[in-house]
Fold each of these.
Amino acid sequence: MVKNAVLLSIVFTILVAIASLVKPTSFPKTGVSFSDKIAHTAIYFILTILWLFSMMRQKVSQYPFSKIGIAILLLVIGYGIFIEFLQDTLTDYRSFDYYDMLANTLGACLGFLIFRGFQQQIVNLKSVENSMLDKN
C-alpha cells in the first residue's frame, strides 16, 4: 500500500510537469481566466495531499507536524515555481505567470492545512479510542 501511494505521488508529479510543459494545442484558448487559477490550485492541492499521505503511510512520526511535512510543503511550492520558470525558458508557447505561482502555492498550502486538520482528527480519535480501551 505504501509503495502504491509513493508511486501514485511520483506519477502525478510527472504528469503535472508534462501537462505544464507540453504545447497546449488541445487546450481551448481562453486566455487568463479564473477557472485556470482554480485548476492550478486544485492540482497543487492534490499534489500536496498525495505526498503527505505517502509520507504518512511511511509512518513518519506526528506527520505533518514534523519537519518532513513542512519540507514537503516547501518542495511542492518550489516545484510549482520551478515549473513556471521552465515554461518561460524551455518553451516558446508557455509563459511565466506570477498568478499561476500564487495559485500553485495556495493549493499547496490548502492541501497541507486540510491534511493537517484531518491528521489531527485521526490523532484525537485514536486518543479517545485508547482511553476508552484503558478504562475497560
Amino acid sequence: MNILIVGRGAMGLLFSHFLIDHNISIKSRAASPSIFSFTNIDGSSNQHQLNCANKKQISSADCVICCVKSYDVSNVITELAPFINNYCPIILTNNGMGVIEQLKQELSISNPIYALLTTMAAKRLSPNHIAHTGVGTNQMGLVSGSADSHHQQKLVDILANALPHYSYSEQILTLQWTKLAINCAINALTAIYNVNNGELKKQSYKQIIADVIKELVAVAKQEEILLNYDGLINTIYDVIDKTASNSSSMREDVLKQQETEIDFINGFIYRLGQTHNIPTPTNAKLYKQVKSLTLPT
C-alpha cells in the first residue's frame, strides 16, 4: 500500500516506523534528511530511510495519515485535496475535536475521513532521532464520508498488523468525547501550572477537574452524546496515575512558546456551551488562561 504520512514530528516518524514495510512517503513543511534513527521501547535502535513525498507520490497515495496538530489539519488537507483521489482515506491523529466541522466549512471534500485515537507516546531526541516511550492503544473509526467496505477492511487489516493494540470501532464519536474529557482535564492544568501529569492527583486540583467534566458532560448531552460522569472521572485519574511522570503536549507547547491545541480542547467545550446556552465557566477560564500564556501567532 502507498501510504502518505503528513508531518515529520515524533508521531509522524513513529507511525512511519510501524508501517515501514509498506511504501511510505512523508510530507513535511521543510526538506528533511531521508534517514531517521528510531529507538524502540526496549532500548534497541535502528535506522529507517523514507521517501520525501512529491506530487506523484501524493497523487498515488492509497491512504493519508495526518500527524499534525489540530490547528494545522485544515491547511494540510486543503493543500492535498487537489492531488489525492476522492476515494483515498484520510486518517486524522490530532487531539481535540472540531476539526471535521472546520473542514466541512472550509472545504468540499468527499474522501472518507477516519479518526485514529492513539495513546502511543514518542519523544524526539534530536531532529532525526525519536524514541518510542509508550506502547499505548490505537482506536479508529469513520467520522466523515462513506467508505467502500472492501477498501476499508484492507486498510483495517494493514493497520491491525502494524500498530500495537489496534481496533476498529463503530462508536468512535463516543471514544473521541472520552479522550476529549481526558485532555480537557489534564492538558490545560499542566500547562498553566507547569507541572507533570502526576501533580494533578493533589487535592487542590480535584474540584476544578470535577467542574471541567461536569460542564463537558452537559454539553455532550446536547450533542446527543451520553457520557457517565463517574466513569470519566475514574478514567481521568487512571490516566493521571499511569502518565504521572509525563509532561503533556500542551505544557511542552507553552514552554516552547508554540501554538497549542486549546481551541480544539477546552475551547471546543466553551464554544459549544455558547451554542447551546450552557454555562461553561471552568472550561472558558482554562481556555483563556492557556491562550494568554502563548505569544500571538
Amino acid sequence: MTSSLAVRYRRRHLLARCGLYFGAVLAAFLCAAPFLWSLVTAFKQNRDLYNPANNPFAFNRPATSDHVLYLFERTSFVTFAWNTLWVGLLVVAVTLLLGLPAAYALARLDRPWAGWFGVAIFLVYLVPPSLLFLSLSRLIVTLGLQDSTWSLVLIYPTITIPVSIWLLIGFLKTVPRDIEEQAMVDGYSRLGAFWRAVVPLTFPGIVAVVVFAFTLTASEFIYALAFVSPTTEKVLSTGVPTELVRGDVFFWQSLQAATVLVAIPIAIVFNLFLDRFVAGFTQGAVKG
C-alpha cells in the first residue's frame, strides 16, 4: 500500500514538473516569438517574405545576408548606433547625477514641501512632448545646438529625470534608516553614509533607472526628428526609418536586421547585471 502511494506521488510530482516546464517553455516562446520572427525575416529573400503562404518562422527559400550587408554598406547605421550610444550614456550619467540626490532628499529629508514637490516633478513627465518641442526648439536655437546631437543630451534628461526620481524614491524608502544612522555613528557624514551605505543597497533601482533612461533615449522620436536633420548627427530612432523607409518602399528585411542588432547588445548588458539586480533586493535587510 505504501509502495503504491509512493509511486502515485512520484507520478503526480513528475506530471506537475512536466506541466511547469511546458508552461515555462511556452511562455518563453511567446515572449521571444517577435524577436525570432525579426531574426528570421532579416535573412529572408524577397520572394520568400512576400508570399503569404510561406511559414514566417522558417526559411522557405535559401537564406541570404544581402539585406544585412545593405544595412552596413548602403546606410549610415554604424553612425546612428554610435550617436545613440554616446547620447544614451551621457543622458544616463546626467539622470543619475541629478536624480539620485533629488530622490534621496525627497525620501529621507523630512520637509513640508517634499510631498507636493515630488508630485510637481512627476507632473512634468506627464506633459506630452508634442506640446514642449516648440518651446524647447527656441531654447536649442538660442544655445546654437540646432542640428547637433548635443541638443538631445540637453533635452532628454527633462524626460528621464522626473520618472527616475520617482523610481528611486521607492527604492530608497525600502532602505532602513538604521543603516544610515549606524554609518553616521561610525563617523561618516550624511553624504558619506549616503554614498557608502545607501547607494549599494539601491543598486536595483539604479539599474532600473539606467535601463529606463537608455531605452527611452534610444527609442525617442519626436525630439530627435525636430532637433536633428543631418545624417551624420542622427540617432537610430530617426536615422533607420529615414534611410530604410522611402515613400511607399520599405526595406523590410534591413529594418528587422536593425531591430535585432540593437536589441541584442541591450539584452546582453542587462543580463550581465541581472544577478546584481536580484541580489540587491536581498541585501537591504537590517541584521539583528
